[in-house]
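Consider the following assembly input.
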Amino acid sequence: MFKKLLALGAVVVVAGAGMVGCSGGAASSGGDKPFKVIAFTQGYGTPVGKSTTDDFVEQAKGLGWDVTLYTNESYDPLNNDVAAAISQGADAVFAAFPDPRQVSPIVRAAKDADIPIFSVDGGVEPNPDFAIDVTTNQQQIADDTVGALDKAMGGLKGKNVMIIGYDPHIGIMTRSHMAEDLLTAAGAKIAGGEIKQILQPGSSQEDSLKFVADYLQANPQGLDGVWVGFDHAALGAVQAINEAGRNDIYVTGVDAIGAAIEQIEKNGPFYATVVQPFDKVLGEVVTAMQAYAKDGTRPSENFVAVDVTLVDRTNAATTTPTDAK
Amino acid sequence: MPETQTLSTAMTPQERTPIAQLLWQGGTVLALVVLIVFFTIVRPDVFPSFTNVRNIFEQVAILTIIAAAQTLVMVVGDFDLSVGTNATLSGAIATALMISGTPVPLAILVALAAGALVGAVNGILVAYVKLSAFVATLATMTTVGGLAYIVTNGTTLYGMPEEFFWIGQERLFGIPMPVVFAFLIAAVVWVVLRFTTFGRRLYAVGGNAEVARLSGVNVRRARLLAFTFAGLGSAVGGVVLVSRLGSASSASANNYMLLAIAAVFLGMTILKSGQANLGGTLVGVGIIGVLSNGLNILGVNTYVQQVLTGLIIIAAVTLSALKSRDA
């Protein structure tokens, strides 16, 4: 029995030494360490957030980078996880759709580690906390969608337009307030007197349905258009208008998801949406990260706003939905 | 001659005047009546109209179904935090299956089975593994929520066959089908709780599980079945919701959990015993629906609506707690 135990122990020691030797050998024969990226997003639960983040991880791995992705619906644990990961060693941080107002711990950790943060859709103005932030042109989104409503309603002056937004998302907040300014300046009245706020993205379609249905109950002839900050909520507004049997109220959204494009093609209340080319946005960020990974070159400008494309009845049939896979 | 002495007893602090007792007992129902009267006075041309009343019923139909499911669990003295995510997952499963070509009836059956399975898991964890309902259903809520993201791939599923939409978008003699389903589910739950032995067993377990066990009630099985039927009810709510919306997202019904619990708690204040009951739940649903509709008609800010709804729930829970102590 003792000899068997001794033999077993010897096998274990030899095997362990072999594993250590092999791993040591792999490390030494592997050459340079891969470019290590800590990626994070709070928006993994949204179609665009998920697809963009997944695309980045795929591209990064294709480039031979070592990527670790952190996702959480809440910024508190996300900040903790990412800050801890940065302190354990990383070369760069990739932020997908971060809310710049809620990532201070990550920014501090990155500064302490002297590593840059590359961001996709991380705000609506230049932010010194990011080496680069590439986003879409919110002013153009507001201009194009309000312009589409103008066309659909035959003018804006004197028209009653409901605006539905979601202020916790900085992009939606910015463009909805821009749309409010444009509509007000053109002489339109904001239905209800203020922007209607969605409470949770998950229930946005139902919330919008209720807003518009209840508003039409109270004001049957008091609504000409609905400007909505994102397509998922816009679908609810469209449904309320259809159920009320109206064909004289128009809706615009943003994001060009498949369900929205399908509605636009029906020539019903849903009049237009906007493609935010996040594939192009991501491409610019990855290019900037590649330059940094190669020789530490940081981007010359830290804020880029990419142009968007309006999708309406004229081009809906030839537009690829942004959530198509 | 015997002496006659008159004892005078002062009214004890616990005794209430009839008006006070009426308010104490029927406060929740009165609250609903007051809300209806208030909104009718403020907007007499809109609020009490047939189309608006139908609108309110349609808006609370899904909540009614999910709250009825929650009532079953709360009757046995537990609660289920996973009703919302369960409804989301079930709706997502039905949609994903239909989009991939599965016949509509089969897709619905699979979704309902999935919902019942989630409920059964909750029941096993609570009744047999003896985890607290809060912990067990919090865990399943998180797990099921994640599964919903996987099924939908984080996106919005759409493109169901036209024949699926009658469940959520058609009208039967002018009554929206979600309302019809809500009525049916509520009627079934009411009949079961009120007139069946099973219902009485559920109340017995909720009243005192140990006494129920000593009386011969299989407490564990009763709780398991309560959770399973609650899961099934949530799944029905989820399927009706996706048919109503014409799409399924990764979190479409998650919000309903808190509202369902709130509705049941509001309803518990109606009974002297403070027990969950279907009639009270419907009153609770009515309060939530009337408040939401009325405040929207008045153009009240959404955030303010949240505060008001929360305050009403606090008041209801406090009243329920006070009544339980009083009993």
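The first helix of chain B runs from residue 18 to 42. Ask yourself how this observation constrains the way the partners meet.
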